[in-house]
């Protein structure tokens, strides 16, 4: 089997920076379980959703046994993605994707029209009109150039452009809005369907429509004599599902878990069935507000977008808040407060999160020792790097490398 070059993680970091600087096109790194390790893409949540629901991520995963062949995937939304599997020398493989990009004959209007046929709400339509406007248009010759660059970056090998695979993907997204989906016949299945529809709407930051409003937390029968206790248990389960949905949509772990704990206390305070509907509605609106804040984050000011871009391009350097402020043309005092106000996180915390994402990639794609990775990513001491990594990822860097991140994925499931 063809194996990637020994310094593939370093070369991929360089390629990601060049591709982003050239046309603001993002790079993505997944394992063979669909777990996203890293992305440099703007509008990450929205583009990730389009990559998944358009079927291109699954199509790329099906090619994991190909030996070093880049593939250009295009779905019915007119978006293109360049994918290639990296077979690592130390064992295992990673999927690297560049995109999205508009192919030569595509347009934003056509993409929105196709999304409309899938029941896209007006709120989401406005959001996607904005983010699709940032997708670069790439000529077919340039697409082949990017694919060749990706292959050389991974395998240090020049390849014929005729060897690049091109594939059109049948979309996986259901084209019916939730109101038109046939509900199951029995009560248990119907309640589960309501719950799944609520979580799907929640992940999109919108209110449910139709019969989904009838949900009251009555899903699983725990065979308890105390019916109020059973209702509380179901609401606690639904609360946890809402929190997990919020985390997957980009809400910080701290914010989601704080909300989850608060709503558990409110559920436990219930003394009657009549108050349950108010609790579940309040719970849903609360998580919906958190997710909307994340989805609307791209409405942030140019200064904050510039600061985020600068950090992603320079995270291996010794970055200070003063350096970033000078780059953006603001005082350090003003920028740090503006950054927290618009993003909900401190500037220093954002720098750390970008470095941690890069650390995960380096742990999986290189043979560098953990001390070296800690130094290259400006964490300073190994002990500090271990402590921060464990706090944010849920396991030590050593364990993450040994299990290829699978333990941390189980904890999220």
Task: Please tell me about this protein's structure.
The chain is built from 18 helices and 6 strands. With 413 residues, it is of the alpha+beta class. The protein has 3 domains: 8-168, Beta-Lactamase; 178-295, no CATH class; 300-412, Orthogonal Bundle (Arc Repressor Mutant, subunit A), CATH 1.10.10. A hairpin with a 4-residue loop joins strand 3 and strand 4 (79-87). Helix 4 (108-116) packs antiparallel against helix 5, helix 9 (253-268) packs antiparallel against helix 10 (276-295) and helix 11 (302-314) packs across helix 12.
Query: Which parts are unreliable, with pLDDT below 50 for 5 consecutive residues or more?
Result: 171-186, 210-214, 409-413
CATH fold descriptor of the largest domain = Beta-Lactamase
What's the total helix number? Answer: 18
Number of E strands: 6
The portion of residues assigned to helices is 55-70%
Strand coverage percent: 5-15%
User: Strand sequence of the main sheet, in spatial order?
Assistant: 2-1-5-4-3-6
Level-1 CATH class name of the largest domain: Alpha Beta
SSE class: alpha+beta
In short:
The chain is of the alpha+beta class and 413 residues long. It has helices at residues 8-23, 44-53, 56-61, 108-116, 122-132, 140-155, 187-203, 227-248, 253-268, 276-295, 302-314, 321-328, 332-343, 347-365, 370-376, 382-393, 397-403, 406-412; strands at residues 27-30, 36-39, 71-74, 79-87, 93-102, 165-168.
